[in-house]
């Protein structure tokens, strides 16, 4: 039986993760916040240490958050088979039964069988890097190669034992990061200095390729790591023209495309084998077999110092979200959504004034010494330098439009006097 999930994520994603857990009515046993990315081996190390903090030594099912599993029953069966091996102190990984000569995945070559049951575990003979197409075809023909899923099952103490054997410095800094961690609402913030000093590496490189306790269990469950937009086309439900369509999309003479409209209508004419993704941030148009090259666009954005490489227009906060819908020198327009019962901090801004127009729900406003309530189609004004607070006393989300005006509109122009979420 699975326990409550233990989530490891970057600190900048904490409110998004918390909101997604709330949407599926799932409470986490802990949400560990990484100050910087150090790959999977350190992340799982601190998770294992946290899982053992109460004196237990549980089995850990390690799953990336961005994979698609179509056949849940097949996954459950593979996990059940893996439990037996993990209880023998093996580090089990799941090898995806390949459906073709894929060049975008690493491979696992199997060794001797560890089970008399079909679909049981095998020894790991080798982990293989992403191959070229000809080599991948050879792997498929050989029949003893599986895609490397990056999913694992092992006992917490066994993983830590092998990590200490092969990457002791990583475990040392992981321990220090957890010992120095501080509680922040529903999150655990790892110690920044210790975790930043930790070497970065994947579980495969740090442990699995070196340990003699590795095992692999075949998994055929309609798996995809959704490593590109074209992967969503592969796993998505297609129309009669072979298109996967999301959102408000119109097509004419368009075949075998992935078409995603996030904030406005998208029209596609005469396209074949393309990916078109429209969001409030940007629009991507790419040949389906070249979508991995989007990383080159990201590199260009970074070289040009453009904020699109780092920021989304919609930003999650503990009280809800805000989204920039327009800006120019000296003004900015945002859509703000406040969850029922939630409250922003008591704050002031030194360089901007704000106009608030409620479009849905009810807002309780603190402005200087006065407190009042406004509803749909009503508005108020917060002068520059005035202490203020926005609350949602209602049972439905509060939606309002905020118009900022002033000489500086950065998010760091804020002085907090009281905050439900402990922010300074």
Write the layout of secondary structure elements.
Elements lengths: L5 E5 L3 H10 L6 E5 L5 H12 L7 E4 L5 E2 L2 H15 L4 E6 L10 E7 L8 E7 L4 H10 L2 E11 H11 L1 H12 L2 E3 L2 E3 L2 H6 L5 H6 L5 E6 L3 E2 L4 H7 L8 E3 L2 E4 L5 E4 L4 E4 L4 E5 L4 E5 L6 H10 L10 E4 L2 E9 L2 E8 L7 E3 L3 E9 L2 E5 L2 E5 L4 E4 L5 E4 L6 E9 L8 E4 L6
Parallel strand pairs: 1-2, 2-10, 5-11, 13-15, 14-16, 15-17
Antiparallel strand pairs: 3-8, 4-12, 5-8, 6-7, 6-8, 7-11, 9-10, 17-18, 19-20, 20-21, 21-28, 22-29, 23-26, 23-28, 24-25, 24-27
Helix pairs in contact: 2-5, 2-6, 5-6
Task: Please characterize this protein's 3D structure.
- This protein is of the alpha+beta class.
- It contains ten helices and 29 strands.
- The chain has helices spanning 14-23, 40-51, 72-86, 133-142, 156-166, 168-179, 192-197, 203-208, 229-235, 294-303; strands at residues 6-10, 30-34, 59-62, 68-69, 91-96, 107-113, 122-128, 145-155, 182-184, 187-189, 214-219, 223-224, 244-246, 249-252, 258-261, 266-269, 274-278, 283-287, 314-317, 320-328, 331-338, 346-348, 352-360, 363-367, 370-374, 379-382, 388-391, 398-406, 415-418.
- The strands form eight sheets. Strands 19-20-21-28-23-26 form a six-stranded antiparallel beta sheet, with no helix packed on it.
- Helix 2 (40-51) packs across helix 5 (156-166) and helix 2 (40-51) packs across helix 6.
- The model has no long low-confidence stretch (mean pLDDT 93).
């Amino acid at each position: 039986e699975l326990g409550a999930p233990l989530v490891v994520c970057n600190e900048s994603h904490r409110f998004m993760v918390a909101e997604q857990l709330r949407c599926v009515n799932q409470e986490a046993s802990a949400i560990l916040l990484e100050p910087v990315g150090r790959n999977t081996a350190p992340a799982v190390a601190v998770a294992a240490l946290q899982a053992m903090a109460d004196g237990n030594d549980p089995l850990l099912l390690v799953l990336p958050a961005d994979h698609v599993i179509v056949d849940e029953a097949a996954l459950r069966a593979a996990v059940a088979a893996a439990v037996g091996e993990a209880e023998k102190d093996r580090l089990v990984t799941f090898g995806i039964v390949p459906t073709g000569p894929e060049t975008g995945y690493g491979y696992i070559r199997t060794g001797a069988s560890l089970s008399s049951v079909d679909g049981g575990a095998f020894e790991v003979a080798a982990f293989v890097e992403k191959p070229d197409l000809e080599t991948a075809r050879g792997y498929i023909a050989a029949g003893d190669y599986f895609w490397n899923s990056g999913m694992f099952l092992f006992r917490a103490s066994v993983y830590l034992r092998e990590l200490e054997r092969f990457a002791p410095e990583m475990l040392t800094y992981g321990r220090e990061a957890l010992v120095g961690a501080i509680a922040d609402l529903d999150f655990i913030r790892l110690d920044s200095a210790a975790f930043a000093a930790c070497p970065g590496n994947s579980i495969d490189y740090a442990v699995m390729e070196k340990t003699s306790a590795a095992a692999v269990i075949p998994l055929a469950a309609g798996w995809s790591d959704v490593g590109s937009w074209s992967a969503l086309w592969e796993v998505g439900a297609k129309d009669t023209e072979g298109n996967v369509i999301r959102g408000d999309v119109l097509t004419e003479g368009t075949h075998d495309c992935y078409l995603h409209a996030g904030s406005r209508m998208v029209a596609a004419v005469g396209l074949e084998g393309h990916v078109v993704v429209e969001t409030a941030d940007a629009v991507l148009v790419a040949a389906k077999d070249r979508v991995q090259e989007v990383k080159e666009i990201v590199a260009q954005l970074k070289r040009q110092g453009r904020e699109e490489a780092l920021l989304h227009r919609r930003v999650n906060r503990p009280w809800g979200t805000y989204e920039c819908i327009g800006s120019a020198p000296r003004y900015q327009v945002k859509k703000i959504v406040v969850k029922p019962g939630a409250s922003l901090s008591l704050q002031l801004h030194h360089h901007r004034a704000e106009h608030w127009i409620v479009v849905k729900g009810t807002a309780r406003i603190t402005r200087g010494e006065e407190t009042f309530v406004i509803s749909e189609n009503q508005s108020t004004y917060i002068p520059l330098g005035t202490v203020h607070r926005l609350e949602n006393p209602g049972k439905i989300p509060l939606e309002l439009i905020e118009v900022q005006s002033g000489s500086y509109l950065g998010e760091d122009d804020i002085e907090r006097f009281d905050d439900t979420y402990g922010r300074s």
